[in-house]
User: Fold this.
Amino acid sequence: MRTNPLFRGMTQARYGRRDMLKLSAMAAAGIGLSACGVSGKQQEAVADDDFWQGKKETGNVRFANWPLYIDSKRTQLKQFTKATGITVDYKEDVQDIAAFAGKLQPQLANGDSTGYDMFVLTNGIELARFLALGYLAPLDHERMPNFTANIGEAYRNNSYDPGNKHTAPYASGITGIAYNPKYVDREITSIADLWDPKFKGKVGMMSDPQEIANFGLLAGGVNPAESTEQDWQAAADKLRQQRDDGIVRSYYAQDFVQPLTNGDVWLTMAWSGDIYQQNAEAGTDLRFVVPEEGATIWTDVMCVPTTSEAPVDALKLIDFLYQPDIAAGLTEYITYIPPVPKAQDILREQAQDASGKARAELERLVESPLVFPSEEDYSRLHNYVALEPGKEKAFTSVFHAVTQA
Amino acid sequence: MRRKLTPYLLALPGWAWLALFFVVPLAGMVSLSLTSGNVITGFEQTFNVGNYVDAISTYSEQLFRSLLYGLGATLICVAIGYPAAYWIAFHGGKHKSTYLLLILLPFFVSFVLRTISWKFTLSDNGVVLGTLKSIGLLPDDFGVLNTAPAVVLGLAYNFLPFIVLPIYAVLERMDHRVVEAAHDLYASKLQAFLRVVLPISLPGVFAGGLMTFIPTTADYVNASVLGGPGNTMIGSIIKTQYLVNNDYPIAAAITFVLMAVLLLGIFTYARALGTERVMEVQAK
Assistant:
């Protein structure tokens, strides 16, 4: 049963998925530290066919995801249980990818169950590491008809996991610039605006090396995909100069929305969905732009660890979420980019059937370039720098030297 | 025979706990801090002392800053906590436990929320600064958030109860007749405090100081929430190295450097305050 659209958005708080401070996840650091003496150990590669041999449905799947990345009633999961009879043990345990991956690392290295049959990771360093270490099960596309039929073209040929062999996108988002027109009296169009001395002490940047690297590179006119170690150094120098000139107020992990709303920062690197949600929720008039130099697109992907105890169930759930109407329902709540383009058509139809406030809300969602970017938008969006194995340390230390001074 | 063994048996759980959850991991960490390699290929024991050299040379600035912030927060805590403990112990009357509860009350709210509430309070246009700015007491571009003072104040705020309680415990147990005796010997109020009360309460200050200084120095939450560029503390570095970079050897090496520096500081501090007497009074 659908909820009455009148109450939609009024009864459900829509927080940014990353609103939850990472801090509780930081407690995991303590746990991680006591598990010391663990070293990374490559799992023996499992041949794709072999992995699925003899795997059976168990009737329950444990799924770890970001907080508030599905509505509080878990509508889509209930629909899944109704359709398949498989129950879902859903946990909002992913509050910080690095901490989450760091916590799982020792268990996966030992070939132990992590307590999750599937989880979400962002297409960054941690995902690359898990792929390189062979921790993620190969996805059997033959068992995933919805996935094969409905996944968007842009997601088929991605750089982080070509052919989606081990991952299936959950949602994507854009890292661009958000600004508060209450304090900024001109239109912000360019990454160079983040270096404008006029905004001294009022600029927010992101602390994540991959996020800030892209902006440093794009500011210097370098395409992140083709960047070299010299480019990283040059980008870091540019970012360091921005810091030393006192322009940067703070390097945010994820909590940039409140300072931007309060006026502690006037413009900041930001995630599209968080700004969309803040405007919808709090009635603020924050602006989000994809700067002319380009911006970053990231993707949260679902994956199944090789130690999953219910891989078949996990696969079914992943495939279920690729049904266009299910994807549409999910998008309506999380307001990030769905990997299923057909979701837009479904939401458009729903908007036509709806009326009043619900209609306006749905129309706004359907037409938003932040949730459904155009082809032209996509052409200006860059992935994180793809790092060859062994280069992560060199990369992160260059940018940590800027953000963690 | 049995009677002789009893104390040891009683101490056994404590020892086992320490051995299992402190000594063993510590030994593991020492060994880890001397390895080389990376998380993909695995770490190999090479007795690589270079990790320590790297840790110190790369992060000495953050280490020094953390000690400074920890010290600052501890001094603020003593300055605020001592009078509070003194007042509760000597003038709290029958409501002593209520006052103590009030001191502890913030602890019933999650640490994270408490720190975040500071963000709201200290916001450029928030209740404090916004008001002061609107009546013209502060220039418009004045800000506290994302600066060193914000971090130190946040630390002091979060760890205040740790210093009030030990000082209170010592003052509360104090025999008040010694103050009367001081007055009988014509000591002024100030003299009685400086020469009688203060020395007796020093063990409490010592214990409270340690309980504040150690965790504040190693804290990483306040700096990341309230700090700005250039306020990174060593705790954040360790966390990043361990969880983000998975560079376990460096993380372990920094941890031991921090531990060594803290221990050194504590021994110096204990010497200065006269440990033996301190421990003696604490034991009573």
Q: What stands out?
A: The longest strand of chain B covers residues 35-38.
